[in-house]
Amino acid sequence: MIVSVLNAITDRHLCWGFPKCFNRIRKLGYQWNHKRVYRVYCELKLNLKTKRKQRIPPRAPEKLLAPNKQGECWSMDFMSDSSRNQRRFRTFNVIDDFNREALGIDIAVSLPAGRITRYLDKLVEYHGYPFFLMHPLYLYRYRVFQF
What we know:
The chain is an alpha+beta fold. It is 34% helix and 22% strand. It has two domains: 2-43; 73-145, no CATH class. The protein has a five-stranded mixed β-sheet.
C-alpha cells in the first residue's frame, strides 16, 4: 500500500524529497509512521542525491595600469555620511588617477542620475574628456558613457 502511494506521488512530483512526500501522505489521510515510510522510500531508491555547491575557480584579476599623463584616467565613487543632527547626505567624488587630484566633489541629500551626468558634463567642459572613467564596479570608455 505504501509503495503504490509513494509511486503515485513521485510520478507526479519528480523533484520532491522525502519530507514533502510524507507531508502529502499525511494530507491524504494515511497515518503511517515516518520511519516506516522512509524505509520504503529508500528501498524504492527514490531518495534524491544532494547537489553540492560548485566551486568557482579563482580568477586572476588584471592589474590596473598607472596613467602616464594627467587627465588620462578618472575615478568616481559615491560616499555617504550624516551630519550632527543625523541628516544623511551623499557625496559624489571624481579623482584624477595620475596625480590623485580631486577634480570635483558634489554633495547633496539626493544624487539622481541626471544630476550626476550634469556634474560630469561640467567637469568635462573644464578638464576635457578622460580616456578611461573608472568606477569600483565598472570600467567605462569615455565614448560609451557619453557625457
